[in-house]
Amino acid sequence: MIRLSVLLFALGFIAVSYFFSAWRLKAELNGKSKPLEDPVLGKLTRQMAAQLDLPDIKVNIYEISPVNGLAAPDGRIFITRGFMEKYRSGAVTAKELASVIAHELGHVALGHSKRRLVDFAFANTIRLIVIGLVGRVHPALGVQVGNMLARLLSARLSRQDEYEADAFAAALLTKSGIGVQPQKDLFKKLGYLTGAKGAPPAWFMSHPKAEERIAAIEALEARWEAGRIDG
């Protein structure tokens, strides 16, 4: 009976955490974003939209300084103001930024955006359980172990999502006539763009290494090329 109560509590906590996180994120994005309007990017997103049988791909600017892209659980795509400033300064090209949009579209199409909130809620529940159990013996150690397990679990789940979204983006960029080179070029810049040589942002820690992502894309290219030759 006690175990059942603990399980029901955990499931209830995960559900409450999910809906609260979704509500908080939506409120944050609504209050700090506006539609992205850029003729060059607009042309590229229309090329991608045509391959997805969509009238257009709407992208929003999220008014925060870190360099990042975001796919919201409701399907909206966001590029941060920090990323747009890199684009305006010439540090990032339009095609490279289009590869970010394609990547975030992958998260939406593959259901990652909603699942990540569930993963976050699950990891947070595990964190609290571990803190409670270990904390009975050593409170400070309980917090450290709980936080570490939550980070490791979230990072592992997130990395697989990133590879899948990269593959979706690579296919879409290829079909749209943009190609994967801008995608690979951007990965080479990520450390510089995000300041990861110093203290990397939290989201950067949960992503695969740039060279591993490039290698995965090149492996996809090789398979596609082999398929064309065999066909």
Give the tags.
6% strand, alpha+beta, 231 residues, 73% helix, 4-stranded mixed β-sheet, single chain
Describe it:
The protein has one domain (2-230). Helix content is 73%, strand content 6%. It is built from nine helices and four strands, in the order αβαβββααααααα. Helix 4 packs across helix 6. It is globular, with a radius of gyration of 20 Å. It starts with a helix and ends with a helix.
The multimeric state of the shown protein is: single chain
Number of strands: 4
Strand numbers in spatial order across the main sheet:
1-2-4-3
Helix content: over 70%
> How would you characterize the largest beta sheet?
4 strands, mixed
Specify the structural class: alpha+beta
**Cα-atom Rg, whole angstroms?**
20 Å
What is the general shape?
A: globular
Mean pLDDT: 79
C-alpha end-to-end distance? 61 Å
Question: Which stretches are low in confidence, meaning pLDDT under 50 for 5 or more residues running?
Answer: 196-205
Alpha plus pi helix count: 9
* Tally of discrete structural domains: 1
Order of helices and strands: HEHEEEHHHHHHH
Strand content: 5-15%
